[in-house]
Write a structure and sequence with these properties.
Oligomer: single chain
Shape: globular
Distance between the termini: 5 Å
Number of helices: 10
Helix content: 25-40%
Strand order of the largest sheet: 5-6-9-12-14-13
């Protein structure tokens, strides 16, 4: 079997359509939506609405961890605009393109910037959406846990630690544990370009140590200090920032 794994697609529908080439299945670990491209401030929902110059200002404030100033600046820009329908309209446009690009079969879970309630409208018969659930692929059991934990960024699909831990527990013992965020290990959660620690999961780390899956696969941190390491007998792999590389990570057995 050969499975191609992608994460942090962030609007890259062109490469997503080719992600299944040579593979028996595709696994997607979320973050389909591109709200703001930190490398190219002219790309994404935010600059489409407010321009690249304002997007650069938001990036500057967030990178400096001046989150309250960033929120205040954003509130000024959104004044007079009905925010929720404006964002949903833009997200729907991206989802229409991205879900149409998914190869068959695809097994997918949500990222922290995704909007789970919209996925049933766009997931075709060849795409299986899983969150706190398991599926067998080629004789191996894959467990999926989507979303992220609460942060000052307040992205759309952030949940409490307890809810996240309950989903990890529901998955149980698997061969491959698929999550959007990494286990809470400093080398896996530190972003070398953003120069900050992203949130990883202690519950995920504990589950890896306890249940010993063959692999723990995740994304979320675009430029991690370490892309892979072993935790006991488990190979932990950041499958990469697909929006930037356009290349899936391959798992073979």
């Amino acid at each position: 079997m050969r499975v191609h794994v992608v994460s942090d697609v962030h609007g890259n529908s062109t490469d997503l359509a080719r992600a299944g080439d040579g593979a028996d299945a595709v696994v997607c670990l979320g973050d389909l939506v591109l709200f703001l491209d930190y490398a190219n401030h002219a790309r994404g929902i935010f600059p489409d609405l407010f321009g690249a110059e304002n997007a650069s200002r938001i990036v500057e404030l967030r990178t400096a961890r001046r989150f309250e100033e960033a929120r205040a600046f954003g509130a000024e820009l959104w004044a007079g605009i009905d925010r929720v329908p404006a964002i949903e309209k833009a997200v729907r446009k991206q989802y229409a393109e991205l879900f149409a690009a998914f190869p068959t079969p695809t097994y997918a879970t949500y990222g922290n910037v995704d909007m789970p309630r919209l996925w049933p409208e766009y997931a075709a018969s060849g795409t299986t959406v899983l969150d706190g659930e398991r599926v067998e692929i080629g004789g191996w059991v894959f467990g999926f846990v989507g979303g992220g934990l609460r942060t000052p960024m307040r992205t759309p699909y952030e949940i409490d630690d307890e809810e996240y831990a309950a989903k990890i527990e529901a998955v149980g013992e698997v061969d491959v544990l698929c999550t959007h965020i990494p286990p809470e290990v400093p080398d896996l959660v530190y972003d070398t370009v953003a120069r900050r620690f992203e949130r990883g999961s202690r519950a995920l780390l504990d589950a890896i140590r306890r249940t010993k899956p063959r692999y723990s696969l995740f994304g979320h941190v675009h430029q991690p200090l370490a892309r892979r390491m072993r935790i006991g007998s488990t190979e932990c792999v950041n499958v990469g920032h697909f929006a930037g590389s356009g290349r899936p990570w391959a798992l073979e057995w």
